[in-house]
């Protein structure tokens, strides 16, 4: 028994070394972002570069706020991200319920075609989508920013798998008691898929908050409906760039994502744990 435990220790130690190295690789850029955001203009341009700021300053964060209408862009991003996430949850979960629980002719074919849209890159449809929004007079509007983000094939697939993991006895018992599909969906099945909903909410919020290409195109250079990632790109100069200010802006931009994930982390972990169980 002791020999078996002793043989496992080097293997476990090697695994921990690999995991620690992977963690350092992942967190390294974020640590550099924090360090760079605290450097002065002279310190950030110093050659050879220094690891720690000397001296450290927090003025760069104030410079970000003063560089463009920061608070307006933040409100735009936050409002659009929350609205898009909520509507995606509603549409994806209802579509997933239909694909998972309701029998209709050609269901698998329709679902396969639905998933096939995931293979189409956004760059392919950006021009026809802009022309459509222009014909609808939705250029530089909140509706134009929001509408193309409402349907998520990934979210529908994720929620469909969550519904398929629930026993059909729940549906049958509810139908025997006189419940309809709406009641079964909202009162019985949807609460049981809360971990999957939270996981999808994290992905949807991150995708909407970090979206750059479509907000850049649809706002047409106007600051009225511009989002924070697009505004952050204005910190880069034509000939020179103050990277300490850019890093400060990047830190401010990722703060809402980290906060949102912190509130939903336990649900995400439950979703991962639930996906690994059967029966």
Chain-wise SSE layout:
Blueprint lengths: L1 H36 L3 H4 L14 H9 L2 H32 L5 H10 L5 H14 L6 H5 L6 H12 L4 H8 L4 H12 L1 H17 L2 H6 L9 H5 L10 H33 L4
Task: Please describe what this structure looks like.
This protein is an all-alpha fold and 279 residues long. It has one domain (68-275): MetI-like fold (Orthogonal Bundle), CATH 1.10.3720. It contains 14 helices and no strands. Helix 11 runs antiparallel to helix 14. The chain starts with a helix and ends with a helix. The relative contact order is 0.13. The model has no long low-confidence stretch (mean pLDDT 85).
Brief synopsis:
The chain is mainly α and 279 residues long.
Tell me, briefly, the overall form: globular
What is the CATH level 1 assignment? Mainly Alpha
Biggest sheet details: none
The CATH level-2 architecture is identified as Orthogonal Bundle
- Uncertain residue segments: none
On the 0 to 100 scale, the average pLDDT is 85
The count of β-strands is 0
Total domains? 1
Fourth CATH level, the homologous superfamily: MetI-like
Number of helices: 14
**Relative strand content:** under 5%
**Which class do the helix and strand fractions yield?**
mainly alpha
Features of this protein?
MetI-like fold, 73% helix
């Amino acid at each position: 028994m002791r020999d078996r435990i002793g043989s496992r220790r080097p293997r476990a130690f090697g695994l921990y070394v690999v995991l620690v190295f992977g963690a350092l690789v992942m967190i390294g850029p974020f640590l550099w972002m924090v360090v760079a955001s605290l450097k002065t203009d002279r310190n950030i341009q110093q050659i050879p570069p220094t690891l720690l700021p000397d001296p450290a300053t927090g003025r760069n964060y104030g410079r970000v706020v003063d560089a463009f209408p920061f608070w307006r862009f933040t409100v735009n991003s936050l409002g659009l991200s929350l609205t898009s996430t909520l509507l995606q949850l509603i549409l994806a979960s209802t579509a997933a319920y239909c694909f998972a629980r309701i029998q209709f002719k050609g269901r698998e074919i329709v679902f396969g075609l639905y998933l096939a849209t995931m293979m189409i890159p956004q760059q392919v449809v950006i021009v026809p989508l802009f022309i459509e929004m222009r014909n609808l007079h939705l250029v530089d509007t909140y509706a134009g920013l929001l509408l193309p983000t409402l349907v998520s094939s990934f979210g529908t697939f994720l929620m469909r798998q969550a519904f398929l993991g629930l026993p059909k006895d729940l549906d049958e018992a509810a139908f025997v008691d006189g419940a309809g599909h709406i009641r079964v969906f909202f009162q019985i099945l949807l609460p049981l898929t809360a971990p999957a909903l939270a996981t999808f909410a994290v992905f949807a919020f991150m995708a909407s908050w970090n979206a750059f290409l479509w907000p850049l195109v649809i706002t047409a250079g106007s600051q009225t409906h511009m989002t924070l990632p697009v505004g952050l790109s204005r910190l880069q100069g034509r000939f020179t760039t103050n990277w300490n200010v850019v890093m400060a802006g990047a830190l401010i931009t990722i703060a809402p994502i980290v906060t949102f994930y912190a509130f939903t982390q336990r649900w995400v972990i439950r979703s991962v744990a639930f996906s690994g169980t059967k029966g």
